Amino acid sequence: MDSRQLRYFAAIYEAQSVSRAAEGLNIAASALSHHLSNLETELATALFARKPRGMQATAAGERLYSHARGILRAINAATDDLQEKGREVTGDVSVGMSYSAVKAIGVDLMKSVMTDYPKLRLSLSESLSGSTLVHLMASEIDLAVVYNPPNDPKLRVQPILEEEMVCVGRADIIGDSEVPVTFQELLNLPLILLRQGLSARALLDDASLLKQLESRARFQMNSVQAIAGCLVDGLGCIVGTRLFMRELLEEGKLHARPITKPTLTRTLYICELADRPATFALEAVRQLIMKLIFAALSEGRWDAFPVRQAD
């Protein structure tokens, strides 16, 4: 199997037709069919079921396409990286960020790329931390900025900042006091938890405390908009950060109280695949993200503390 076979296979998969894929690749359909037949023979399995209206991937075809996407992206990135002229930053970089990170630096990141790296093509996606890691592991993104990733040898991680969590809700739900609420008092409030995809631990550093919150939660949601609506309507409160619901706090629709005994925290990390060498473009974007995060901290736009290892 070589990169050309993978590229031809991916084109057929995406077009769901040999003839349409051949047109896109500007080669003869018979030649493309021959390459596909050779690949299926080499792998000793059918990759497509031939249907009257096109090609439908088999289970083996679906698995191969999942591998092919990552391999072809890596090949394209390597080509762009090594063909740079005069060390000018070019190429494609895909970044996945948690909701809070996009809220704090997303627009600034896009502006900085336009100004500093005009030939760099940046793709920015926002999702919950667990979902973002799934995309990274599948090689669908190059860099993930997420909370509390799992201890996985496939990941290269760097802690950046630590946030203290607060209790956020309407004043008539959590009290209009500025006095901290204890963790035990928190458990008696009507809790709403933000589900974090496959990584529920993204909410808190301490998994045992998270389990206690989960056992008492009235609702669990993976929609930021739904949670905001529930909070404003007085259906409950959340354990989150001031940044998470900043606008509603500033408008006075919600109130926040610190949490003590113990203090609850979460840590933001920059994550990459450990076995993938960084391109010049990826290094540039990584450094730019760190610069913007630290600027947001120093200017008070992000209520958090830098992690010493990231200095």
UniProtKB/TrEMBL annotation:
Q: Which domain of life is it from?
A: Bacteria
Q: Which UniProt keywords apply?
A: Activator, DNA-binding, Transcription, Transcription regulation
- Domain HTH lysR-type residue range list: 1-58
Short name of one Pfam family for this protein? HTH_1
- Entry's Gene Ontology molecular function annotations: DNA binding; DNA-binding transcription factor activity
Family matches, as InterPro entries: LysR_HTH_N, LysR_subst-bd, WH-like_DNA-bd_sf, WH_DNA-bd_sf
| Record SUPFAM superfamilies | Periplasmic binding protein-like II, Winged helix' DNA-binding domain
Set out the biological process GO terms recorded for this chain's protein: regulation of DNA-templated transcription initiation
The record's comment on protein family reads: Belongs to the LysR transcriptional regulatory family.
The protein in question is named LysR family nitrogen assimilation transcriptional regulator
User: What species does this protein belong to?
Assistant: Sulfitobacter noctilucicola
